[in-house]
Amino acid sequence: MDCKRSSSPRSAAIIGGNDDLLIEILLFLPAKSLIRFQSVSKHWRSLILSPRFSRLHTLHHRRRHQPRPSFLLRSSITSQFFVCQPKVKKLVPFRFEYRHLKILQSCNGLLLLECRNSPYGQKDYFVCNPTTRKYQKLVLSFGQLVRGLCMVFDPAKSPYYKVFCFTGYDDDRYSKWVEVYDSGTRTWTERVKVSGGPGQIINGVYWNDAIYFIRTRRTSCYFSFEDDSYGFDWTYETPRVSSPGATKSHVMESNGHLHHVVLSLFYYNNYVYVFEGIKEDGKWFLKYKANLNPISSRFDGKINAISLLGMIRRKREKDSALLFHMPGKIMVYRFVDKKIKVLVDFTREYYFEKGQLQFLFRDAHEFIHTLAPV
């Protein structure tokens, strides 16, 4: 008995003193748990936050596990940020280092931010990991009008990300210059001239080794950057839905799938159509159709009392769902059984206002928890 009792602390000491063995064990833990485990000791903290372990953990989890997404929501009433997790029945407040900011893009756990010190102050750009609360400032010194920035990050392929900065002149909205920031070398490449593309580079979605700019009522385009050959292509068509009433369209990426979601809105005849992009030929097919009447009936058919926040796309059909918001509640619509479940009820929280929508689609950003360094 004494031998068995003494072997446990001895084994723990062996593991704790062997960094290679400790790393092999910690690699299997989720990022959120590792953030808490930083407090175990200074040694653990330095190991978990080291760039080498962060890259190993990022690649390990992306290749072996399908990450469960969370959503970063910004209140349209208070401008406060909250984290919404599909398995947690409450909204967790989240605070950035900058008060005046805009999330330009969310890409596999990293955020591209436009920040100001004051409402009308100078714009600064950062890449942020909301899990580790780390920031990397992007120093721009191009001397031209910035038309937009986009980020590319695929941890299944590389632990490093790239940021594309598009600049141009006021009198020429179609000719642009692009410079690329590589987090691996922490440098900008020399400028390359590109033609075409949208006038403003906004709402880009990274998917299928390109950045897509989906325009819901017109021909869309994508920006290709394979083999350092940059260019825009305007051959991407988006699906349309015939509706007796108004339609609202949203484009989103979830777990490697591109979705074009159309809300067909008419009095007591409200549906949502989910189209999925096909990588091989750039076309769309109807993946899901959902009846929203059970939700709108709670508000006498007023669909304006509902906002779509995002889509949770999983390998198993029963795990895929849509995330909705109505005054005081965050709801999940599951495609497999067509059931609507209240995920979060915040009617008793200080930020609740009766009859008011707190969160809109433009202020909802899906992200995954990761230790990816910035």
Report what the structure shows:
This protein is mainly β and 374 residues long. The chain folds into two domains: 2-49, no CATH class; 64-367, Neuraminidase, CATH 2.120.10. Helix content is 15%, strand content 40%. The chain is built from six helices and 25 strands. The chain has helices spanning 2-17, 19-26, 31-37, 42-48, 51-64, 293-296, and strands at 70-74, 81-84, 92-94, 100-107, 110-116, 124-129, 134-138, 145-152, 162-169, 172-182, 187-188, 192-195, 205-207, 210-213, 220-224, 231-236, 246-254, 257-265, 271-277, 284-291, 307-312, 321-326, 329-334, 339-345, 364-367. The strands form six sheets. Strands 8, 9, 10, 11 and 12 form a five-stranded antiparallel beta sheet that branches. It is globular and about 60 Å long. Mean pLDDT is 83; it is low at 1-7.
Summarize the structure.
The chain contains 6 helices and 25 strands. The chain is mainly beta. It folds into 2 domains: 2-49, no CATH class; 64-367, TolB, C-terminal domain (Neuraminidase, 6 Propeller).
Helix and strand topology:
Blueprint: H1 2-17, H2 19-26, H3 31-37, H4 42-48, H5 51-64, E1 70-74, E2 81-84, E3 92-94, E4 100-107, E5 110-116, E6 124-129, E7 134-138, E8 145-152, E9 162-169, E10 172-182, E11 187-188, E12 192-195, E13 205-207, E14 210-213, E15 220-224, E16 231-236, E17 246-254, E18 257-265, E19 271-277, E20 284-291, H6 293-296, E21 307-312, E22 321-326, E23 329-334, E24 339-345, E25 364-367
Antiparallel strand pairs: 1-2, 1-25, 2-3, 4-5, 5-6, 6-7, 8-9, 9-10, 10-11, 10-12, 13-14, 14-15, 15-16, 17-18, 18-19, 19-20, 21-22, 22-23, 23-24
